[in-house]
Amino acid sequence: MAPPSITLIGAGNAGYHLGRRLRATGSEIVQVFSRQPAKARELAEATGAQPINRLAEVKAGAGLYILAVSDGAIAPVAATLRQRLPEDSAVVHTSGATPSTVLAPSFPRHGIFYPLQTFSREREPNFSTIPVCIYSPDEELEGQLAALGRQISNNVHRIDDEQRAILHVAAVFVNNFSNHLFHIGKVIVEEEKLPFELLLPLIRETVDKIETNAPKDMQTGPARRGDRKTIERHLAYLKKFPNFEAVYEVLTESIHQEKT
Ligand SMILES: NC(=O)c1ccc[n+]([C@@H]2O[C@H](COP(=O)([O-])OP(=O)(O)OC[C@H]3O[C@@H](n4cnc5c(N)ncnc54)[C@H](OP(=O)(O)O)[C@@H]3O)[C@@H](O)[C@H]2O)c1
User: Fold this and answer.
1) Residue 115's CB: how many other CB atoms inside 10 A?
2) 187-221 pLDDT per residue, tens
3) Where are the strands (E) in 142-243, listed by range?
4) Structure confidence at residue 259 (pLDDT)
5) Which residue has its alpha carbon closest to ligand 1 atom 31?
6) What is the distance in A from the centroid of ligand 1 to the CA of 95?
7) What are the extents of the domains in the chain?
8) 207 CA distance to ligand 1 centroid (A)?
9) How confident is the model at residue 249 (pLDDT cuts 50, 70, 90)?
10) What proportion of the chain, given as a percentage, has pLDDT over 70?
11) Does the Cβ of 119 fall within 6 Å of ligand 1?
């Protein structure tokens, strides 16, 4: 079965990488939409698509419409597209946090094409290992999404709305929160005129260890050991960073609670 032709709505971090990967693996990208002409043009050039800046320019007839727009924009963009496209158009979004049902009022053939990775424009992702979470209440569309997922990755999963919402909570912890903790570490060492690079081997080993061990078993440090004196010293230092002090206290207590 030939892959469906695709219109990509959104040229942000996710749309940029998804569009280029789909094109590189054989998909025809018909149009790329961004309200910002330069962004639409750049991605359209990379994917051989037509750049457009107004939703009114979206053409009917693509095999699949992928909405890679901010979560809050998914429903209103779908409603606007519904005024242009036939009701039986296949429309999916790429959000981990948003149920597929937000598309239902506009398009009965709707679904999810959620790549579970953190995308930034300036970083080239290794797509073949990225879990692609697909779902549709329409069996035929779900089959097409699974095939499209396998086209760009060796790691495709059917994950329904409820499971995906919970998966997204876990993803926030392991990515957004850990990245924020790296930020805190950077602010602290740089406050003391030390380079952040000093911490990089530690960060790498923290991640490498949990490939083969449970994170809880790999926990070390004063909170794990119950070393109150060290904890008090750290909290005294953190008085100059009240926001970070609060984070330290919450995480210390959480590690303590999970110890047994
Ligand atoms: N980045 C990630 O790591 C990642 C990973 C997996 C899934 N996702 C999901 O992918 C989706 C896009 O995220 P992102 O990280 O790519 O966001 P982003 O870089 O902030 O880009 C957001 C895109 O949404 C468009 N947009 C926002 N409001 C709009 C509106 N009212 N009408 C039309 N377009 C609008 C923006 O359009 P303009 O270009 O016109 O400003 C931009 O193209 C989200 O649902 C997100 O949950 C993101």
Assistant:
1) 24
2) 999 999 999 999 999 999 999 999 999 999 999 99
3) 156-158
4) 82
5) 73
6) 9
7) 6-159, 165-257
8) 28
9) very high
10) 99
11) yes
Q: CA distances (Å), 191 to each of 10, 164, 203, 236, 238, in order?
A: 38, 39, 19, 16, 12
Does residue 144 have its Cβ closer than 6 Å to ligand 1?
A: no
Torsion of CA 244, 249, 250, 254, to 10 degrees: 140
Any atom of ligand 1 within 6 Å of the Cβ of 123: no
Give the pLDDT confidence score for residue 228 in this predicted structure: 97
Average pLDDT, the chain: 97
* pLDDT for position 247: 98
CATH, domain 165-257, list 1.10.1040.20, 3.30.70.100, 3.40.50.300, 1.20.58.100: 1.10.1040.20
| Spacing, Cα 13 to ligand 1 middle (Å) | 7
Give residue 51's Cα distance to chain centre.
24
Name the DSSP class of 176: I
CA 174 to centroid of ligand 1, rounded, Å: 21
Q: Are 38 and 59 in contact (CB under 8 A)?
A: no
**C-beta 35 within 6 A of ligand 1:** yes
**Given a cut of 90, is residue 117 above it in pLDDT?**
yes
Q: For 31-74, what is each residue's pLDDT tens digit?
A: 999 999 999 999 999 999 999 999 999 999 999 999 999 999 99
Rounded distance, CA 132 to CA 153, Å? 7
Distance in Å, CA 74 to ligand 1 centroid:
9
pLDDT of residue 220: 96
User: Strand order of the sheet with strand 29-33?
Assistant: 50-52, 29-33, 6-9, 64-67, 91-93, 110-115, 132-135, 156-158
- Per CATH, is 6-159 categorized as 3.90.280.10? no
